[in-house]
Write a structure and sequence with these properties.
About 80% of the residues lie in helices and about 0% in strands. The protein is built from twelve helices and no strands.
Length: about 240
């Protein structure tokens, strides 16, 4: 046992002191490893290559999709702004409409934006449940636009008679990067929705928030009137 240990130690010293011997040992060991595991290594390399190719193809596909969607969106938005809502939503036979863009190009910026425009167009047409669905699909890092989408979702819910849910969305819009200009508007809508739901105390509290937190807002005078009315109705209800 002692002789074997000494032998191994001697071999180790030789490898450390002789770089050529170490290189030869490593090369020989690597060749043996490759020979023994050739099939497995080929499988690993093939899998890695497949992942790289798949990633490249996916990137190209998404890039192409995004370009196609942008072209279609340009025409759809043109129709939207011209108030040709049917063509904006369903296309003109040559270019896809907002509904198809949102569906087929989901995951692209254009597909995301198509949900917003489609939601607004459907609201105008009175298709409130469908409008709600598209607006809920929309996501934006732009605080003002996202808040606007929440408010429009509240409009769609309110039109369906879902007043408390609508009030929740208006409150969500108001508190999404709260600001002096838009937040009071959204809170006013929340108060009105609470009143429609016969929750007059919640309405009064919402109007009070405008009065206290947004003292320079144009809505303050109106909020005071609405608050007095809501408090009176809350007292009557009790």
């Amino acid at each position: 046992m002692a002789k074997e240990t000494v032998k191994k130690h001697s071999e180790f010293e030789e490898l450390v002191e002789n770089p050529d011997a170490l290189a030869e040992r490593l090369t020989t060991g690597s060749e043996d490893f490759v020979k023994k595991n050739k099939t497995k290594l080929l499988g690993v390399f093939a899998a890695i290559a497949a992942i790289i190719v798949a990633g490249f193809l996916y990137y190209n596909h998404r890039t192409t999709q995004s370009q196609e969607a942008q072209e279609a969106m340009f025409q759809a938005v043109y129709y939207f702004e011209a108030d040709s809502l049917n063509k904006a939503l369903n296309g003109d036979g040559q270019y896809d409409g907002l509904l198809k863009i949102a569906d087929e190009y989901s995951g692209t910026d254009a597909g995301n934006l198509a949900n917003f425009y489609a939601g607004v167009a459907l609201l105008k047409q009175g298709s409130f449940a469908e409008a709600q669905s598209h607006l809920e699909e929309f996501e934006s890092e732009d605080f003002l636009m996202q808040a606007r989408a929440y408010s429009l979702t509240g409009d769609a819910l309110s039109e369906q008679g879902k007043y408390k849910e609508a009030a929740d969305m208006y409150n969500k819009a108001a508190t999404h990067n709260s600001n002096q200009y838009f937040s009071p508007q959204y809170l006013m809508k929340a108060g009105v929705a609470y009143e429609a739901a016969n929750d007059f105390q919640a309405a009064a509290n919402t109007y009070d928030k405008i009065i206290k937190d947004f003292v320079t807002a144009a809505e303050v005078t109106e909020a005071k009137k609405y608050k007095a009315r809501a408090e009176a109705l809350a007292g009557t209800a009790n």
